[in-house]
Amino acid sequence: MTDAVGRPLEHERAVDAGTPLIEADRLSIEYEKTRERTRLLALYDFTLTVPAGEFLVIVGPSGCGKTTFLSAVAGLVAPTSGSVHFEGAPVRGPGPDRAMVFQDYALMPWRTVEKNVRFGLEMAGRRGPRHNDAVQSYIELVGLAGFEKSYPHELSGGMRQRVGLARALVVDPKVLLMDEPFAAVDAMTREIMQGELARIIQETGKTVVFVTHSIDEALTLADRIAVITSRPGRLQEIIQVDLPRPRYEKDVKASPRYQELREHVWGLLQQEVSQNLRSGVE
Amino acid sequence: MTRDADVDTRSAAGPLSPPVQRVSKDGPRQRFGRLLRSAPGVVLLVVSLVVLIAVWQYAQTRIRAVPPLYLPPPSAIWHALLENFRNGQFQQNIAFSLQNYGVGLAIGASAGVAIGLVTGGIRKVNIILTPYIWALYSTPNIAFQPILIVALGFTPLPKIIMIILGVIFPIIVNTIAGVEKVDGSLLRAARVFGANRLQLYLKVAVPYTVPFIMTGLRLGATRGLLYMYISEIYGSTNGLGYMVLQATHRFQTPTAFAGVVLLVVMSILIVQVLQIVPRFLPHTREAKI
Ligand SMILES: Nc1ncnc2c1ncn2[C@@H]1O[C@H](COP(=O)(O)OP(=O)(O)OP(=O)(O)O)[C@@H](O)[C@H]1O
Ligand SMILES: [Mg+2]
Asked: A68 CA to middle of ligand 2, Å?
């Protein structure tokens, strides 16, 4: 397979940071509220392009459609109008090239760590020693060696999310869709996990679309930050985060550029939230 | 603090309680206090049971509060129990009852789980079967017994069918509830990771339902015991229920009571076994039902 210019797609994708991996074009998504017989416009006229190899962080007020956007990319919800393209083809459903990490972990409580990580491979009928090795190596990568036979309820929140991350990575997706993955873990674990995620993404070269409510988390991780307006969500602004990597919290937070960016994003969000309050939405 | 402080229940009375009380190191009182703290439920149960039996015995031998024909003293029940075990009456009747119960429970449970899983998983089947299931569940199924006996005679078969009717509905209903309540975020995750419809069902919905099945099984097993008993009261020449009824007719109330005691013990054992089983299933410990 080659792209329009005739370059091979498979190998150079990660290096080729200019290729759009995800393209949302004038995307609108409506939810049917069956009980009230009304419709709810979650995303409206939403346009956003994510190049391969980028770490994109999405921030926006609660209920603005961030999860909805990730679901559309994952193929869980279909556009009402507009389109989502992945590698140039319209998204028609879930696929192994897109994996997701969930805020509530969504681990199967009856499966051990190892079997949870294996889930995606199992669904695709991928078995055998090569895949066993992959499972083991991703468990090690996220720092869970020794916990292969543990059940989710025996793990802390941070450890559970490591399982969620390994489960997503092991299918070798082209993009990781992460929906507030660290929102439910304590502040210290959260910082550690951010550092490890940054390291893992650097090692694996994955494209990431990451949703968060934390501006600091966004600034620590992002290549670009997409700020979304309150519902119906539209793209408000894209901010290039030109901070050096690796961004160890102390050094980064001290820099004037960090403060500048932080205030800028904060200002955008505040504007949205206060508008929300004035118009009486939620 | 000395080790005594942990043992002496009186230390809870406050700093004013005289320290002299702590002199004895490990008397029966201290030992009891320790036992009470380590397993309060069991200890209190045993104590209350002993008190109950003692009061009962006293009331029925000394005061004769109720004519002993209606309420024999525990000692008489105990003798009847031993006597009937000695002459083999109990063994034979228990064997008959338990055999029916075992067959009925096995068939009722497996059919109940199967019906529940299919009904919960296939919308159309659910819509069609649900009214029938609830109608049969809420009817006193005892109504079927005379018909069954007329059709099948004084054989174990109508009894087994009665037990199946007793066992099956709580299991069906709970299994359906489990499939229907399956965690939406687990389904979402499974879909993201490529599960097709069949896989969503087999790899998410069915395992998710296991704790619900266990609940249904526990309810069904006890309900089945009730139906077993009832099936032996009418149109039967054998079994625990038959034996109790016969003894009552012959004014052998101690034997009747002994039969009831056996039934109680049997139900407790069955419920206990069914409560232990889920501990071996990893996720039921967490299941929020
Ligand atoms: N399955 C659904 N059916 C109906 N409405 C939905 C559904 N999912 C989301 N919504 C609604 O769509 C809107 C956008 O939801 P979404 O979950 O995408 O927001 P979000 O930005 O992720 O919010 P949060 O920051 O709170 O997670 C919300 O008002 C929500 O109530
Ligand atoms: Mg969300």
From this structure: 7
State pLDDT tens for residues B193-233.
Answer: 999 999 999 999 999 999 899 999 999 999 999 999 999 98
d(CA B78, CA B84): 10
For residue B136, the distance in angstroms to the closest alpha carbon of chain A comes to 30
Based on the structure, what is the number of domains in chain B? 2
Q: Measured over all CA atoms, what is the biggest interatomic distance in chain B, rounded to whole angstroms?
A: 77
Cα–Cα distance, A190 to A155 (Å, whole number): 15
ipTM of the complex, rounded to two decimals: 0.87
Residue nearest to atom 20 of ligand 1 (CA): A63
pLDDT digits (tens, 9 = 90+) for B67-123: 888 889 999 999 999 999 999 988 999 999 999 999 999 999 999 999 999 999 999
The distance of A180 to chain B (nearest Cα, Å) reads: 14
Examine the domain organization and report whether B144 and B270 are in the same domain. Answer: yes
Say whether both B126 and B54 belong to one domain: no
Distance B98 CA to ligand 2 centre (A): 55
Q: Which helix (H) or strand (E) holds A239?
A: strand A235-240
Q: How many angstroms separate the CA of residue A208 from the nearest CA in chain B? A: 16
* Ligand 1 pocket, residue A62 CB under 6 Å: yes
Mutational test site, ligand 1, from A40, A236, A273, max ligand atoms within 8 Å of CB: A40
Q: Which residues of B touch A (CB under 8 A)?
A: 185-186, 188-196, 199, 203-204, 207-208, 210, 281-283, 285-287
Chain A residues with CB-CB distance to B182 below 8 A: none
CB contact under 8 A, A153 and B285: yes
Residues B196 and B264 in one domain: yes
Phi–psi pair at B26, nearest 5 degrees: -145, 60
Which residue range forms the structural domain that includes residue B77?
47-62+73-86
CB-CB under 8 Å, B192 with A76: yes
The strand pair at A38-51 and A55-59 is best described as unpaired
**CA–centroid distance, residue A167 to ligand 1 (Å):** 24
The mean pLDDT of chain B is 85
**Which tokens is B107 given?**
């068939």
φ, ψ of residue A194 in degrees (nearest 5): -60, -45
Mind listing the domains of chain A with CATH numbers?
2-97+173-279 (3.40.50.300), 107-172 (no CATH)
Contact in structure between A108 and A163 (CB atoms under 8 Å): no
- Residue partners of B2: CB distance under 8 A and separation at least 6: B22
Could you tell me if residue B34 is inside a domain?
no
Q: Cα B68 to chain center, whole Å?
A: 29
Helix B123-138 vs helix B89-121: crossing angle, to nearest 10: 150
- The tokens for A155 are 């793990």
Average pLDDT, chain A: 88
If asked whether residues B185 and B78 sit together in one domain, one would say no
* B100 & B211 share domain: yes
Q: Which residue of A has its CA nearest to B191?
A: A94
Pairing of strands A55-59, A89-90: unpaired
Q: How many CA atoms lie within 13 A of B176 on its CB side?
A: 23
- By C-alpha distance, the chain A residue nearest B195 is A123
Residue A213 alpha carbon, nearest atom of ligand 1: 25
Domain-embedded: residue B58: yes
Q: Clarify whether residues B56 and B132 are in a common domain.
A: no
